[in-house]
Design goal:
Elements (H helix, E strand, L loop, with lengths): L1 H28 L3 H15 L3 H15 L6
Helix pairs in contact: 1-2, 1-3, 2-3
Length: about 70
């Protein structure tokens, strides 16, 4: 049961990262939600990683580069 709960928590965190990354890309590059998601998917496929991993990297980079932690 605990393993299943952890798996669901990890999946939800991945969905959160994708949502946040889409918002960052939409704002920074004036993209639609669909275009932002496609960009994440394309990068994931080209780097042989998951969309969640790419999204997490986008969110982390944005946080590091944001002045004063502003979004």
């Amino acid at each position: 049961m605990h393993r299943r709960l952890r798996k669901v928590e990890v999946k939800l965190l991945g969905v959160r990262h994708i949502t946040d990354a889409k918002a960052i890309l939409m704002k920074a590059h004036n993209l639609s939600e669909t275009e932002a998601y496609e960009l994440i998917r394309e990068r994931a496929m080209s780097t042989r990683s998951t969309s969640e991993e790419v999204a997490k990297a986008i969110v982390e980079a944005h946080e590091l580069l944001s002045i004063g932690g502003q979004r």
